[in-house]
């Protein structure tokens, strides 16, 4: 009897997806959600355009420079790969994309995860094998293992005249607190040592849900900013709060910082200091006496770091308005500062203001003066840390130097702590260092026992 010849098993070809993520950390979280879903369905993330079967570009469309960067990224992906799906904030304006790149496979707006995945299915069908495609409980992360972003809400209820985010991402939509806290627990269980809380307006968290209660760890927790910060503090990792509007209830959260339950760090988008310009910007905190608030916070938490961003050259900004901003910064003594020149955004209410545009050369000059003052303030404040001991977390190793951050430093946007004798440390390690030197934005130190 002739033995039948067995056919060799067909080698399974895993579909590979390339991914380009642009814009803010909120967009990065969107990218992580899409990739987590695709990985769970058997897709792999390709390391290059050439290795990918198709490419997803998650775009930013906040200002003209971001739009240009997104359009260039789409063009590069098309040139290198040819099959491109576009999502993200610029996807809310498909006509801009199609005018430049009509050959894209699909365009979706921000937070349209299901549409993105469905489009991938259409152009690159999945080949899922659940016993082969194992997914970590925390999902796919695009950040190093030791820190992660935790997005607590989508959208925004403000109508700042320079911003079109509400039209792109919609009104405030908070995630229930139980869901957020369970995700945070999962991250910590996976080895995350720093959680960065993000949203468009962190202080407003839960207002749309009327601060509904949910149980977590046997205790009823309200879907509210303070309750969230308090609960996250129980996880015993670094909790860093971003995009915090200075509403009165923020004072309660500062008390948690004084108790050591969350990092003594506030990221507050002040944007300007002139009452006239803030009114033109339609800023929600225009009437707040922010200097008194900052002074009170620092009395409560002397080592608090405050970072913010500002816009110069807003329509109608006079030299007097700008000098008022500089005077405010001298008084506020903010630790970390970013500054942008005003750029008109299609669809923004500021375009219709009956105000004199500020010439580009004046914008450039004002930004340079602003950043010069900010650097002076930063250098002065950092110099006070020389001789002090700080706890830091290691982000990377460059030869014999460990590149770390202190509680005052958010990844990618703030300063660094360079440890000259830290080459033996590992990424994600904690270390105690004594500060030996300070520059305008960074510190140097040596490991202490």
What descriptors fit this protein?
449 residues, alpha/beta, five-stranded parallel beta sheet, five-stranded mixed beta barrel, 12 helices, 20 strands, 21% strand, globular, disordered N terminus
In short:
The chain has helices at residues 25-40, 64-80, 94-100, 113-123, 165-169, 177-189, 225-232, 250-258, 275-281, 290-300, 319-332, 360-383; strands spanning 16-21, 44-45, 54-59, 84-88, 106-107, 147-151, 153-154, 173-174, 194-198, 213-216, 219-222, 238-241, 265-267, 305-312, 336-341, 389-398, 401-405, 417-419, 430-438, 443-447.
Explain how this protein is built.
This protein is an alpha/beta fold. The protein has helices at residues 25-40, 64-80, 94-100, 113-123, 165-169, 177-189, 225-232, 250-258, 275-281, 290-300, 319-332, 360-383, and strands at residues 16-21, 44-45, 54-59, 84-88, 106-107, 147-151, 153-154, 173-174, 194-198, 213-216, 219-222, 238-241, 265-267, 305-312, 336-341, 389-398, 401-405, 417-419, 430-438, 443-447. It starts with 15 loop residues before the first strand and ends with a strand.
- Strand content of the residues, in percent? 15-25%
In which range does the helix fraction lie?
25-40%
The whole-angstrom Rg is 24 Å
Which segments are poorly predicted (pLDDT under 50) over 5 or more consecutive residues?
Answer: 1-10, 130-135
**Could you give the count of β-strands?**
20
Described by its quaternary structure, the protein is: single chain
Q: What gross morphology would you assign?
A: globular
Structural class estimated from helices and strands:
alpha/beta
Alpha-carbon distance between the two ends: 78 Å
Instruction: Enumerate how many helices there are, as a single number.
Output: 12
